[in-house]
Amino acid sequence: MSGGPECPENARLATGSRSAALRQGLRTRDSAYFENLYTANPDPWNFTESSYEQDKYAATLGMLGGRSFSRGLEVGCSIGVLTKLLATRCSELLAVDIVEQALSQARERCALQANVTFERMHVPEHWPAGCFDLMVFSEILYFLDKTDIARTANLANASLAKDGILLLVNYTETIDEPCTGNEAADLFLQIFAPENVSITHLRNSSFRIDVLERRSHSD
Ligand SMILES: C[S@@+](CC[C@H](N)C(=O)[O-])C[C@H]1O[C@@H](n2cnc3c(N)ncnc32)[C@H](O)[C@@H]1O
């Protein structure tokens, strides 16, 4: 895609009861794990109806203020409920997920939004080319182990445009995944290059949103 945002020149490169020690043994969830979830239920997290999800989406969009973006990336788009909302803020939006069943629902849901492209991608093994001035990781990082979170943070750092915004949205209650939401967000924030980045947080009883905003050097 041409005419998109410019990359920074100096970019560096659920559960419950399981204890942190046991969870440390869990590796990044593979595609079969999610394919089984979507086979059992086409909307496994009840994105279309749950009040938790509606509140989370409203808070996520609220963190964007009135801003619009030229090229957005949504990682782990699932069935496209958040995608449809993000698409209204982006000239172009690339939404990726590891599961084809989810992507086909997402394509249908966003069929009238010609600015959205969907791709099957297993992050961080696969990563899109180019730069983005909006990147959204909503409820995805804690499915990765710490090594893959660090890889993802470095890839995202290299792909976030000079004045770009990156959102991390994470459930913070108990889960049975490789990381908790707090561990995943804190590690990502630690790895992502802090130079010229301002960070804003929103926390409530069930989720947190971290907004990383890359400032140009003149700011
Ligand atoms: C809990 S859903 C989040 C959906 C959406 N982001 C939201 O907040 O409404 C997590 C999604 O991430 C996808 N996913 C998990 N691991 C992934 C990976 N390594 N690469 C790409 N997608 C992944 C899953 O298939 C699932 O659809």
Summarize the structure.
With 219 residues, the chain is of the alpha/beta class.
End-to-end distance: 28 Å
State the CATH superfamily name.
Answer: Vaccinia Virus protein VP39
The CATH C-level class name? Alpha Beta
- Number of domain units: 1
How many beta-strand elements? Answer: 7
Which structural class fits the helix and strand makeup?
alpha/beta
Indicate the percent of residues in helices. Answer: 25-40%
Largest sheet, spatial ordering of strands: 3-2-1-4-5-7-6
Average pLDDT for all residues: 90
Shape label: globular
Bound molecules: S-adenosylmethionine
Radius of gyration: 16 Å
Write down the CATH topology: Rossmann fold
What is the count of DSSP helices, taking H or I runs of 4+ residues?
7
Task: Note the beta-strand portion.
Answer: 15-25%
User: Could you state the order of secondary-structure elements as H and E?
Assistant: HHHEHEHEEHEHEE
The second-level CATH architecture is 3-Layer(aba) Sandwich
Unreliable residue stretches: 9-17
Most strands sheet: 7 strands, mixed
SSE order and pairing:
Blueprint: H1 20-23, H2 31-40, H3 51-63, E1 69-75, H4 81-86, E2 90-97, H5 100-109, E3 116-120, E4 132-138, H6 146-159, E5 160-171, H7 181-191, E6 197-203, E7 207-214
Parallel strand pairs: 1-2, 1-4, 2-3, 4-5
Antiparallel strand pairs: 5-7, 6-7
Helix pairs in contact: 6-7
Bound molecules: S-adenosylmethionine.
